[in-house]
């Protein structure tokens, strides 16, 4: 049957430059054309289902899948649905009047907001993304309405269109793209499959390509949590991240006021390097993939999680490719933070033992949240755990109570001690334990920042690394040890060690310590330790550049070897002082090269 031309005309726009605008300005990523056309086909299908549920469509629904077909020979891509279809009048209304406004008006309206803001559904521009890759587009469509005649619409990318009669037995629409020479990369089955799997993996209507259904129309986040088992959540996690370890636990998000939001967030096992850890949370809008750049909607620390968020209320730019910040985004951000904090609090209350076993994996995440979000801290302060060198866990309040009696200094400040390396700092840890002090293990990549936050938040509490000073100076008490050396002898010992040390940035002090402590102790200022650790975490160069690290050489005035120095001649004094100093360096892992070799040789000779 020969087609009959029913109408010819011009698209209702004020300029002939709409297609260059669409191609270059509106959609920067040309592969989005397939997402838009398939999404439109899904919308048409969903509308038919709704009409049927309202009793406004009495026919047989039949199979409602959307199909995508590639014809490499004809150089066409066809997207077909069995949805509501269109009449000729509807084509004139929805297709010919681009966005119901002119291109100039569109650009003018949004130029102050970056030119491409808004939600695409408000403009009806999705169909026209086809012209990013096609030199000509045909629509063959038949409305679901009784007695509707099939029609064909053709436009070659100019402002001229043609509507003719067509042959089409079933309701629905076929969108036929005649691919332009500069877009023939899309005439590849693997390329199209990749785009469909990226954007359409969870579309709510079955999508068929190459005789296979490529999507899961009923993903877990669309279901009622009460109907799901742990196995369902784990299976979906494997669908998202097939090569990852099982997650520790998860949160099912489900809210419909003051915005609509669903999703599932998984807590993965975190390694100690969160810079390379991020697997990306995927953002969907009505099951259409939008982006995995979710920094506005998800607080920074929650981006360590895996999973999916879906919300039709998130404002997107006109090409639906990324988020725009507005009031809803802030509300959603706050809701997710609160929901995560509530879940962690619930697990802590219901299963303290299980929570402690997981904390080494999630501690990095919780501490990151405490550092970066005050609202998260308000809740997390009750379930964030501190671990000591004996492997025991405490909440902040529990640890305050456990250390208050022994670790409060003469000014009434509580001093918490910590180690970043229990092996290297063992000597200092043992010295602190002799005083019945407790020592925390704070060895993660963000603990230097976490310590600073603790000191800001906790009243009259200071946190010091166990090798930041001699043990009696770490927590100063009213009772002070007396030196067995006279002032003159102390001065002689100080000068002797200054001659031995002779290092830039190094200071020597002689002070009374218990006789069973080491004769010489090397310590580093807490502020320098912390600054160096923070800069190492952020990947920045140290602000101290190539300067030698400042440290203090504390000589124990009450050690028998210090007293022995006074009875020796000059050469013997220097030799013993050097040996004692090298021993202190060795205990800090600072003795190496020729100095280490000579120390070993001297020690062997003495033996």
UniProtKB/TrEMBL annotation:
Any one Pfam family match given in the protein's UniProt record, by short name: HATPase_c_3
Keyword field: ATP-binding, Chaperone, Cytoplasm, Nucleotide-binding, Stress response
InterPro entries the record matches: HATPase_C_sf (IPR036890), Heat_shock_protein_90_CS (IPR019805), HSP90_C (IPR037196), Hsp90_fam (IPR001404), Hsp90_N (IPR020575), Ribosomal_Su5_D2-typ_SF (IPR020568)
Keyword Cytoplasm carried by entry: yes
Coiled coil: none
Domain of life the protein comes from: Bacteria
GO molecular function: ATP binding; ATP hydrolysis activity; ATP-dependent protein folding chaperone; unfolded protein binding
Binding site for ATP: 36, 40, 81, 86, 101-102, 320
Matches recorded under NCBIfam families: PRK05218.1
Record family assignment: Belongs to the heat shock protein 90 family.
PANTHER family in UniProt: HEAT SHOCK PROTEIN 90 FAMILY MEMBER (PTHR11528)
Protein name as annotated: Chaperone protein HtpG
